[in-house]
Design a protein that fits this description.
single chain; 160 residues; Glutaredoxin; 6 strands; globular
């Protein structure tokens, strides 16, 4: 009987870990590495947070199109500006509830003024914003506001 409960416990833990969102933390050095990527692919980097209503509105578009463009030289990275202390309590439950499986990373450097100009010199710190770039193709476009699904698809097709 004890073996049965141990097996059930292990299975339950395995199932729970399968549904949990993998969460990579990103600081300024990692952000700089992303922004300097030499890969000949279109990078679509969205900055967002769970507490930002327009961000939450557009997030499903990024999720849907990340699947639609999979394997097509388009790489999506969703960088959350939620507080790192709220990863377990707020961010991961939000991602699980909304079935977000795209590449989500959490910015750990809360001194935004030290890094936002690295993304775009004109960025004032508002969110949501999306950066589209392909360094190999010398493409860079900074979209300073929320996007609709149609706008997002148009911009991806324009720059890929």
């Amino acid at each position: 009987m004890r073996v049965f409960f141990i097996i059930i416990f292990l299975l339950a833990g395995s199932i729970a870990s399968l549904t949990a969102q993998k969460m990579e933390q990103i600081g300024v050095p990692e952000l700089e590495k992303v922004l300097a990527s030499p890969d000949n692919v279109l990078h679509v980097v969205n900055f967002w947070a769970t507490w930002c209503p327009p961000c939450v509105t557009e997030l499903p578009y990024f999720e849907k199109l990340s699947k639609e463009y999979q394997g097509m030289d388009v790489k999506f990275i969703l960088i959350s500006l939620d507080f790192p202390s709220q990863i377990e309590s707020r961010l991961i439950p939000f991602l699980n509830t909304n079935k977000i499986t795209a590449d989500v990373r959490v910015m750990t450097d809360l001194d935004y003024n030290s890094w936002i100009e690295k993304v775009d010199a004109g960025w004032q710190g508002n969110i949501p914003v999306t950066l589209f770039f392909n360094n190999a193709g010398k493409i860079k476009y900074f979209h300073p506001s929320e996007v609709t699904e149609q706008e997002l698809k148009y911009l991806i097709n324009k720059y890929k």
